[in-house]
Structure formats: C-alpha cells, structure tokens
TrEMBL record, chain A:
Domain ABC transporter: 6-242, 254-498
Designated name of the protein: Monosaccharide ABC transporter ATP-binding protein (CUT2 family)
InterPro entries named among the record's database cross-references: AAA+_ATPase, ABC_carbohydrate_import_ATPase, ABC_transporter-like_ATP-bd, ABC_transporter-like_CS, P-loop_NTPase
Topological type in the membrane: Peripheral membrane protein
Annotated CDD domains: ABC_Carb_Monos_I, ABC_Carb_Monos_II
Pfam families assigned to the protein according to its UniProt record, in alphabetical order: ABC_tran
Entry keyword set: ATP-binding, Cell membrane, Membrane, Nucleotide-binding, Repeat, Sugar transport, Translocase, Transport
Organism: Thermasporomyces composti
C-alpha cells in the first residue's frame, strides 16, 4: 500500500481493573473513510483517545506515513495532522464561529487586541473550501447542532488535519443534515483526508465508508471492505452472536380497548390540535423530522410543559395533568431521550434511581424508608431487565447507556405505570443493547402496557410500532397502521404539512 | 416481568444478573471481599475528616497540656454547639445544591423573638421556646418559598433574608440586648447538666445529630434531598414534587436555626441583636469540611458534626496557644482549602 497514511499496530491499554484494549491494529489510507464499529465498551473511544494523545498507550506502535511517531499529548497529535470531532461538541456557545475556530491562535494587534477582521476572513475561506455558507460572525450558540458540527470540521481543517476522527457525527443530525455532512466527507476524501468514522448506525456506514473494522471487548475482530459487509454479519461480529431477524409486530391491536385519548392538544410554542389515541398493549410510534413536535407531545402529556388547549381522557375519564407528579399519579411515565439530564441521578446508586418515583410506597411506620425492600425490588428489576451492574449499590454513571435506560424504565415499572412515553429509547445505545431494549418494549406491550415511542429511526418505528403517528411542524399529518406503513410513506407524511399548507390526515 | 436469560457472552456478565438463582450475583463469594474496600472508599472523606480531627486534638494536646483538660474539652464542645446545630440543618440545604446565608442573622432574629415571647409577652417557658423554634422554621419556610416558587437563586434569596433578619432583629429589640434573668430555667437549656459533666447545649447538639442523621438517611425527605441535589430536573420529571420538598428542606434548616438561636440565647442568658453575622459562614465551612459537596447530591450528617468539631477545636487550640483572633480566622480559611482539596484529590483518583 503506497498511500498508507496511518497505521496503529498492536495497541494495548489497561486501566486499573480493566483491560480496555489488547493488541489492536488498524490502518487508514489517504482519501479513505474507515468505519470503526463495536458495542459501547468495545474500546473504540479508548483507541481514538490514544491516537489523539489523550491517553498514553501501554504497548504498540503508531506510524504516520510509515514512520513511527510518539504522540505524547493532544498538541502533538494536532501537529501531526490528527484532529478529532467529538461526540459532545466542544465549542464555546458565547463566542462567534470565527473566534471558536481560531481560539488560541488569534492574530493580535498591539499585543492584546484581536484582529477580528482577519479571523472572519480566514473562517470564510474555510467555509468556501467546504462549500458551505455560514457567517463567521454568528455566535455558535445560535447555530443548530448540524451547523456546529460543520464549525468543528472547519476547525479541524484549519489545523491542516490529514487524519480526521469523527465520533458519532450523525447522532444528533436530521436526514437532510446528514446529507450535507456526507457531501462534506466525500469532498474531504477527494482531497486525500483519511477519516476514521465511529458510528452505531450501520445503515449509513454502507453509504459513506470504504472499510469497516469491528472491535469487541477491547479486541480486534475483523476488517472488511464495506462492499462485502452484510449488516447482519457486522452486527453478529460486534455482539459475538447472531441477532434475530428484523421483523414487524404481528399482532394487531385493533380489538384492544383505548387507554388514552388526546384531543386537540395545543401548546403555546409548537403543537397545534394534536389528536390521537393509544390502546392497551399497543406500541404507538411517533415519527417525524426533528422539530416536528414529537418530544413536545410527550412533555405536554406528562405535565412537564404547560398545555394551552386540549383534552386528555384516561380510560374514558377526563384528566388534567399540570405537573409530572400528576402524570405519575395517573400512571404515565416519561423516559427522556437525554437520559443524563432528564432521567438519571448519576451520582446516586441504582436503588434510589429505581425507587425515585415510588418512594412513598416504600415507607413503613414512622415514615421511615424501608431500604431492604427497595433493595429487593431493585434487585428484581436488575435481574428481570438484565441490567449489567456489579451491584444495586453501583452509581448509575458507571453504567452503559443501555443499562441506564433500563434503570429509568425500572423506575416507571416500579411506579406501576401503564403508559410509558419513551423518547428515542435507543439513542446512544449500542447494537446489542438496542435489541434488548426492543425485546423489552415488545414484551411490556404484550403484558398490557401502552407505549408511546418517539423515534427518529424509521426501521425502529416500523419494527416495533403497531400504529404510527406522523407529525410535521407541530401537527399530526397521518396515523398509519403498521401494515400500511413503509419508510417512503412515513417520510411523505413527515414532510407534507408545508406542501399542503396545513393539516393532511 | 421475567424472561429467560440468554445473556450475551460479554465480560460484564460475569458479575451481573444471571438466571441461575435469585440473588446469585450478590451471593457470589467475591462479593463480600469487594464490599469492604468499597465501603472504605465511600466513607473515605468521613474517615479522613475523623483522622484529621484526631491529629488536631493530639497536636494541641502535645503543644499545650492545658488543652486536653476536661474543662477545656467541654469548653470546645460548648463552643461548637451553636455552629454545629446550624451546620446540621444546612447540610440538607447544601445537599440539595442550595446554600443558606441567612443562618447567622436568622438565628439572632429567632433569639430576639424568643426574648419577646418569654420576657415581654411572658409566655410560659415551653410555649415561648416552641414559638422561638417555629419562628426559625418560618424564616426557613420563607426562604424555601422564594426559592421554589419565585425561582430566585438560593444565594440571592438567602442573602436578602440575611439582611432582612439582621435589620428586623435590631428593630424589634430596639437595638438593645434582651435579658432572660427573670425567666426561670431558661439558661438551663444550654448550661444545665441532665447528664453529669455534659452541658445540655452539647446534649442537644448530639440529640439533633442523631435526629438529622435519621431524617437524612431514613426518611422520604432525606431521599428527596439527595435526589434533588443529584438532578433536580430528573427528580421533577419522575413525579417528585420538587418545590414542596425544597420548601420542606429549608423549613427544616430553619427549625434547626431556631434551636441554635435558643441555645445561644440560653448560654448568654440574653438575646444579643448585633451578634450572629459570620455564624453562617462557619456553619457552611463545617459542612464542607465534613465532606458535603457544594454541588449537591452528596453529604453526611456525621461528617458535618466532625467538621463542626474541627472548626471548634482549631479555634480553641489556637486561642490556647495565644494566637490572635485575626490569625485564627486566617488558619480556619486554610483548613477549609485543605479539606476541600483533599476531597478533590480523592475524587480525581477515583475517576481515573
């Protein structure tokens, strides 16, 4: 291989008590997108942190252009032309785009004054190269996530990066924004940039990557050209077993009684006349583009955001929900897409996280909390939901995304909720754990729970939901039976409000 | 819900839920061995604080033999009482991620009000005492309400209360001390000895420590205190009535403040309207030295007691060594920095 840009050879790394990487190798050619996949904890991030100088490796060699290099810190990595675009964006929202890109490298006048004109000019040049129009004087906080990502890419390029690491770049992007990102990536490839691309979304790897490398449990498993890689095989390599074939729910919920009826739900900001109902034992999917108002429906129903107009009937009885406490009392629980911010008590153990919603039911005489009982119940859920934890006294921040999701789920089950509103239940969760969450939701519905599932991943909606509500710009544009739905139909409804100038049902 | 486990063969499953026996992962032989070091790690800050206290006591005993005399040790406990009681209550507030600056002057106001109740209105002792404690709780309730319902940050809300209480104490008392000499038995609240050699004030501190520990660790209020401090938004979405519990926490802290005011007034046998400013900072210092995090979500009552004792001991020891009061304050400041820095060191190590 003449144009081999980067080679990692036999990289090993241990943390106290954990062997994070053992003897992992990876190479990258100029103008190649090399996808790195694996479950959470497989070692992808650790490997990238070694490449970018955040961690020191225990053993192994890094070669750039065939020459061994010693990367002893992020600055060295940057000087060698390695840049990383983080999963969590690391821009400063109150500074402008140009200030963010060139922070620490500003051209100064009179020792202390920043030459803003120069900054803006250089940033504009970068955007020209990328074929993007963004005003460098805009504050980063005013940009949408996709635009912020473009700024990150521009920043990486401003360091003359030849090796770009992208960690889940599309996690927060919509379909169209992903298109733009892919265009930029193709452009970078043409100019000979090598890209290491980490993603959980296997479908998009097929489109954008040239080769795929699979890691599992800190070990190198396989590398294959994307053209030869079958998604199911990749998943099997990642989790170390075959995944059951993708199916659709067989059972119809047509005969089941209606549990929740929503009529004309309207909020100040976004929702307009949202009406739908949920049946017992049903998974009702909510599809739509970002900003369509799906999360807002769940938040309004659970009393987090105020409702301006509209009626909610629970088993035929009109209810008023003014706070999450009201919703919880009525047996409605919300699982946010942002588990860390709106779900977990990260520095508390599993028991308190599980019991949080149902604590009053765990108090004995004298108002004392019955810890033993909480512990037993938590252990039951840990077992039945298969939460991987060393003990129920473990802090939830030490758990993986899938297990954290299960802990929040356990909280609502402990509260005896019949209606679960799950918002992007598998966001940031690796493939194996995704399957478990799918099975879990399906079996909960089979036990008679009603589940409102918001998801931006259409295959997920089609696989789990009995019926699908499609939203666009704060309105419901269609309610489909699973049998009548496919990705194209859903997308048509999801984009149609504008075209029809209003409601189309 | 139960499902048959076909757990994926990843490494984590070795220690996690398997389907063989009900509590197999807890019963596994290595569990018990694991428990002890993790317990030590969890209580590390507490052990460290206790060890520091011991070292400090031994240091002063060696430097000055008078330090370890019974009368001086009792004196240390007595001088710790007021700050200790304030610190116990505010531990709750700090665990919710809040702060309380009105402790000192609020305490003065409750002492003055107790004086009004007992001396001017001539209420019977138990009634007057109860009213004094309740007026403390009311101050806390007002703090909690402005914070929970008006959304004013705790720092600002309690800063305002601090000033209001300071002014009211002076206005109500006419800027003159109220003496309790005619109230029979009042001074006994702090100075009497139900248990030989142990002043009642100190006894009150110990009893309140036990009560606070039970409330924090064993009741709903305690659990919600941790939950709110950990992640207020998540607690709210989980159906916890965060506003109500926050008000409860500040009210509880206010009640402790009321008791502190009572004990102080009983010890001095007077309500001094100009005294009180600065106590809140000593109390917060005691809480922080005891390992409670100002970020919320983490803390302990025992830690706070030890923290208060450290503050009291250092102050006393320095005085016995004839260090000037100005320098005593400087040294207390350094103690706080050291205490918090060791906590940061410990957490830094735990996270890597």
């Amino acid at each position: 291989m003449t144009d081999q840009l980067l080679r990692l050879e036999g990289i090993s790394k241990s943390f106290p008590g954990v062997r994070a990487l053992s003897n992992v190798s990876l190479d990258l050619h100029a103008g190649e997108v090399h996808a790195l996949v694996g479950e959470n904890g497989a070692g992808k991030s650790t490997l990238m942190k070694i490449l970018t100088g955040v961690y020191a490796k225990d053993a192994g060699t890094i070669l750039i252009d065939g020459k061994p290099v010693d990367i002893d810190g992020p600055q060295t990595a940057q000087a060698l032309g390695i840049s990383v675009i983080h999963q969590e964006l690391s821009l400063m929202p109150d500074l402008t785009i140009a200030e963010n890109i060139f922070i620490g490298r500003e051209k100064r006048r009179w020792w202390a004054f920043v030459d803003n004109k120069d900054l803006n000019r250089r940033a504009a040049q970068l955007f020209d190269q990328l074929g993007i129009y963004l005003d460098p004087r805009t504050k980063v906080g005013d940009l949408v996530v996709a635009q912020q990502q473009v700024v990150e890419i521009a920043k990486a390029l401003s360091f003359d990066a030849r090796i770009l690491v992208m960690d889940e770049p599309t996690a927060a992007l919509t379909e169209q924004e992903t298109r733009v990102l892919f265009r930029i990536i193709r452009d970078l490839k043409r100019r000979g940039t090598g890209i290491i691309y980490i993603s959980h979304r296997l479908e998009e790897l097929r489109e954008i990557s040239d080769r795929i490398t699979v890691l599992r449990d800190g070990e190198y498993i396989a590398t294959m050209p994307t053209a030869d890689a079958d998604v199911r095989r990749v998943i099997a390599l990642m989790v170390g077993r075959e995944i059951t074939h993708q199916t659709r729910p067989a059972r119809s919920t047509r005969q089941r009684p209606t549990v929740l009826e929503v009529r004309g739900l309207t909020t100040k900001d976004l929702l307009r006349d949202v009406s739908f109902d949920v049946r017992e034992g049903e998974i009702l999917g909510f599809a739509g583009l970002m900003g369509a108002g799906r999360t807002e429906v769940a938040r309004a129903l659970c009393g987090i955001d105020p409702i301006e107009r509209g009626e909610i009937y629970l088993r035929g009885r009109r209810v008023r929900i003014k706070s999450p406490a009201d919703a919880a009392r009525l047996g409605m629980g919300y699982l946010s897409e942002d588990r860390k911010r709106f779900g977990l008590l990260l520095d508390q153990d599993i028991t308190l996280n599980v019991a949080l919603s149902s604590l009053p039911s765990f108090t004995g005489p004298l108002g004392l909390v019955r810890d033993k009982r909480i512990r037993e119940v938590s252990e039951d859920y840990v077992r039945s939901l298969r939460v991987k934890a060393t003990s129920v006294r473990q802090q939830t921040q030490a758990l993986s995304g899938g297990n954290q999701q299960k802990v929040v789920l356990a909280r609502w089950l402990a509260k005896d909720c019949d209606i679960l509103l799950v918002d992007e239940p598998t966001r940031g969760i690796d493939v194996g754990a995704k399957e478990e969450i799918y099975e879990l939701l399906t079996s909960l519905a089979e036990q008679g729970k009603s589940i409102i599932m918001i998801s931006s991943e259409l295959p997920e909606v089609l696989r789990l939901a009995h019926r699908i509500v499609v939203m666009c710009e704060g309105r419901v544009t269609g309610i489909l039976d699973n049998a009548d739905a496919d990705q194209e139909t859903i997308m048509a409804y999801a984009t149609q409000a504008g075209a029809h100038g209003g409601i189309a049902v | 819900m139960r499902r048959v486990s076909d757990a994926p063969a990843t490494k984590e499953t070795a220690t996690s839920a398997s389907s063989t026996s009900p509590r197999s992962y807890l019963a596994a032989p290595h569990r018990w061995l694991e428990l002890t070091p993790s317990l030590v790690r969890r209580q590390f800050q507490l052990l460290l604080a206790f060890a520091s206290l011991l070292v400090i006591v031994i240091f002063f005993s060696v430097v000055n033999p008078h330090f370890s005399s019974r009368s001086n040790l009792t004196g240390i406990l007595e001088s710790t009482t007021v700050v200790g009681i304030l610190a116990l209550g505010t531990t709750f507030v700090i665990i919710t991620g809040g702060i309380e600056l009105s402790l000192g002057t609020g305490m003065t106001l409750t002492a003055v009000l107790t004086g009004i109740f007992l001396v001017h209105l001539g209420l019977p002792l138990p009634v007057g005492v109860l009213c004094g404690i309740l007026s403390g709780a009311l101050i806390g309730f007002i703090n909690g309400t402005t914070i929970a319902f008006l959304g004013i940050p705790p720092f600002i809300a309690t800063l305002a209360t601090m000033l209001i209480a300071e002014g009211l104490a002076l206005v109500i008392s006419g800027a003159a001390p109220i003496y309790f000499s005619e109230v029979a038995g009042f001074t006994g609240i702090a100075r009497g000895t139900l248990i030989p050699w142990l002043p009642n004030g100190v006894l009150i501190l110990f009893v309140l420590t036990v009560i606070a520990a039970i409330v924090l660790n064993k009741t709903l209020l305690g659990r919600y205190t941790f939950a709110i401090g950990s992640n207020e938004e998540a607690a709210k979405i989980s159906g916890v009535n965060v506003r109500r519990w926050k008000i409860a926490v500040y009210t509880l802290s206010g009640a402790f403040m009321g008791v502190a005011g009572l004990v102080l007034a009983a010890r001095l046998n007077s309500a001094q309207p100009a005294l009180g400013v600065g106590y809140e900072l000593q109390a917060i210092a005691a809480v922080v030295i005891g390992g409670t995090s100002l970020q919320g979500g983490k803390g302990s009552i025992l830690g706070t007691l030890i923290g208060a004792l450290i503050v009291g001991t250092v102050t006393n020891g320095l005085r016995i060594m004839s260090v000037e009061p100005e320098w005593q304050t400087v040294i207390i400041g350094i103690v706080i920095l050291l205490a918090v820095y060791t906590d940061i060191l410990r957490r830094g190590r735990a996270s890597t």
